[in-house]
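Duplicate of earlier report; Rod shape-determining protein MreD input re-posted below.
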Amino acid sequence: MRNLFIATGLILAVAITRFLPHPPNFSPVMAVALFGSAVFANRYIGFTVALLAMVVSDFFLGMHSTLPFVYASMLLAAFLGNLLRENRSVLRIVAITMAGSVLFFVVTNLGVFIMQDLYAKNLQGLGECFAMALPFFQNSLAGDMVFTAVLFSMHHIFVTAPERRLSAPAV
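Output:
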C-alpha cells in the first residue's frame, strides 16, 4: 500500500510540472507511462494513474487534435515499462527511456502529419514533418531522461532502499 501511495504521489508531482514554464516538449509524459507500468504491482493501475494525470493536466492546458497519438504513445511506452518490472538497472532504464523517446517522436509526429494540414499528404510531406520536428526531439529526449531519472530515483529512495534495509538479515 505504501508503494501505491508513493508511486501515485510521484506521478502526480511530476505531472504538475507541466504547469511550470519549460522548454517546448520538455515534459513528463513518457516518463510517467514508463514508470507507472514498471513500479505498480498492477501494471494496468499504474498506466491508468499515469494516463489520468496526463488527461487532467491536458484538460487545463488545452486539448488538441494529436492527443490520441500522445495517449497511444503512452500506451506503447507502458509496454516498454513492463520490461523494467524485474530489472531496473540504470543502463536498462536509460535504454528503454531512449526507445520510448523515439517511439513517442515517431507516433506523435505521424499524428501531426495525419491530423493537421501543415504538410503535403505525400511521402515528401511526411519527410518534411519529421525533419521539422527534429529540433524538438532533443528537448523531448532530455525531458524523458530527467523525469524518468527523478521518478525511478525517488522511488528507489522512498520504497526500494527502505524495503531492502528492513528485509536484510541481522548481523
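The chain has a mean pLDDT of 91.

Merging into the original ticket.
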